[in-house]
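Side project, low priority. Logging it here so it doesn't get lost.
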Amino acid sequence: MRFPFARAIVLVLLSCAFNPAALAADPAQAIAWLGHRIADRGGFEFPFFLGVTLLSLLMFQRRKWIGFLVLYGVAIIWLAYNQSVVTYLDGLGADSFAETRDFDLHEAGFWLSTVSATIRPEISIKWLAFYTAASACIFACLQWLLGHFRASKGRKSAFIGSLAILASGISLAFLLSRSASFYLDNSDEFLTIKKNYSIASPPARQLGQGIPLLVYIGESTTPRHMNVYGYPRQTTPELSRLAREDRGLLVFHNVLSTHAHTSQSLLEAFSFPLVSDEAFLPIAERKRLLLASALKAAGVGITLVSNQGRSGSWNQAASIVFGEADRKIFSTESSRSGNSEIYLQRPYDHDFFADWFGEKKPVSLDRRNSIVFFHSYAGHGNYLDFIPEAYRKPVDAALSEEVRSSDPVVNEHAAETESYDSTIRYIDHSVGQAIEYVKSLNRAAIFVYFSDHGEIPGLGHDSARFRFDMARVPLLIYFNEKSRSENPALFARYQSLARQSHRAISTLAQLPSTLLDLLGIEFSDASTKARLQTAVVGMATSHAPILVRRTAEGISFINVNNFELKPPRMPKEKFIDMTDSDARSFVASVVNGKDD
């Protein structure tokens, strides 16, 4: 085959498959256009395809049909998955890499089950045809050139094989180099948190007698699947009943977590900002005052009852956030088991927490200046693994096999949604049980429930594949009868805030100030109070960015205000506003009084 003939084949392919009008007008411009299109697809997609296809053609030339089919199949698979893999890798940040520290196989399995929703085959026949023809032409041209220099058949194969391996290797190296380098630079970021968060609290004081709090921390729970927030399936029968029958239960709408991962979310939910400009830095890089430090300064007793386990990647924040707790109780007590705790017998949330109600093993709600944290696990994937057998059946027939078969829209992620809704119904039972405990006390007490982050069944809560629903969380506050009668003004204020929450966005960054307010605590110095304590949940206020992440491209963030956020000028830092249409629509709907 002569070289001009091979070039003609490529030009004909360009004319037929891509931009015939541009090719007719200006062949050079058409080829340049195609080069830009290839670069837009990642730049290294074709070199790998070329390398593997050249090897497959060597197999074909030798009549090794199985080798040819296997190698060409690899090239097709690469083309099918390359775009979604590149998009996912580009979305990884330092927070994503932090999650790889001490991960366990169970969590890795759940991640794989959700990542398939993003990394999926999308193949273009035009691109496959072009890449295949271009590779065949290059193979023919190489054969012709090597023949022109009278190379032997063996040398031809060796040269083409070496060139193919080099092209594939360079392609993979470019694909992985940025992510690998970024991983090495950032995977140990949490080792710096203790230094950033080891700030002594300024003096704080308790106003009045104070009210003990029970704070229930949920796991991967979104209001979008809770009937008490308007979800059509009855996933929250107990909370929905309480909302109707007991005026002490206050339901706050439009609350957002500040991150899609547990550690980063809780670090911000349980600490105060010290430097305003640092709001645009990832939470692990900011200097913060821990809520626990302020509570201790005010003489508040702190108890942690955790079903999350003593250690492990999910517990990186808890070891810092609750480091000053007076008492820590874990369902899995082995401090050396790390993430292997997942294999230890983990009790169901409601059973574990019930052991700490009443007189058997009383939590410290008998003290007015006390706070107890329950850290739950139900809601984590795989969803049905952490709820009792009785709750694993479908909530109703809305997602039955019959409905799925007749409605392809319902069918997508239907199985995950079914499992998740069953889990929400169990969470409703566990949270409802805790509320009933607070309700039964013959002393004043307040209950607060929120989730660390949201969840999308089928996608999970991966920040590298962030969707806005991953940030939406429930927040409930319950005042028992004694607390209402002894603190009518406080209850009336939060009752009003719950009503106003339909028209105001809140984030978990407001939680520390909310908890101090409920406990009747404030910083002694007025200027310190004004600088550290934010608006409480339900109040209309401006917000710092959420989902602040350091990525290979720069520091990205999401804006949940109805005005533009202007990042501070920082040397060598590039800030990227990643606010999408879902976030903007959410903000607009709340501001315009159309809360969904």
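Brief comment: Residues 1-5, 334-344 have pLDDT under 50 and may be disordered.
Revisit when time allows.
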